[in-house]
Give the backbone structure.
Amino acid sequence: MKEKKVISKKKIFLIVFCTLIVLFVVGVWILSVAIYNENFNQRFTSDPPLMFDISDFDGLQRTQFKFPSNKGQILTGYMYSYGSEQQGIVVIAHGFGGGGHNSYMDCANYFARHGYYVFAYDATGNDESEGAGVGGLPQGVIDLSYAISFIEGNKDFSRFPIVLFGHSWGGYSVCNVLTYHPEVKAVIECSGFNKSSDMFESEGKLQAGTFIYVMLPFVKLHEFMKYGKYATNSAMDGFAASNAPVMIVHSADDTVVPVEYGYDIYYDKYKDDSRFSFVRFDTRGHNHIFASKEYVDYLKEFNEKSKEWFNQCDYDYKASENRERYLADRANYIKENLDWDIKCNALDTEMFDKFVSFYDQAINR
């Protein structure tokens, strides 16, 4: 009888232990997916008082196009041009969290003025495109792939070689998409990352410490179940699938996408490969990596003065109940105090001259 009791206790222990393990796994899975969706499955819109308008760039023209992505959601894009002597099409893939392509209109203007059509679109869940939310980071690769196919299928543009320009999320997208579009002639990637899970890991370490490595397998599984091959694809896979020249631009002090998640990986593999060009800065951060020093200094001064102005307000502008009032006051402050001409000419033109030269050489080789 005593021996049976011991066996019975072992069984109970095993059942309880296995149950706890299952509950822990399920709990971490649910938590991981919830945190992932909270960060990456949101809808994003551009900041209204800071949005560019086509009239901000003298002579720049654009035509609106709409095209479907993978689940039938309709994306909105614009073909920008200047003059009538284009030699190729630059497709711009925008970054994450700030809305669609609007904040890159100055980039579109520069490329257009130097002999290129520029196709810039809003990814799923951003600005003028459909989608309740982005869904997840692999969606950027999918949307870009559909954008390239749309251009290649348009009789007015199909004869032009295509080159890609991407920043941050867009940088990840333009490299990854080479797996599916090896015909692309050249890629410029700024501040991007190698694979989709990198961003969850990078941001998660700041919030959850080493526990992020417990959550990471569940995030990867979630993405794979949702996006299949797009979730496991990496920029390195894209490089291997294509012969396109690639320029990698990153800053060592980037805290949004640290260099070890992108630049360093690529440099270790391809530093001696003439197909790759590497541009590494020390103090350009993430959001303004291709802005001029003059603009960055001006913006820093403007933001400091803006903060001082709001700190002197007769209400708590950080309180949720004053949100609408704050947004209205902020919009008025920006309209009255931001030098729009400086904003429209924020690019580091020396850098962009090198970008144009890189594209020119790639499509004419």
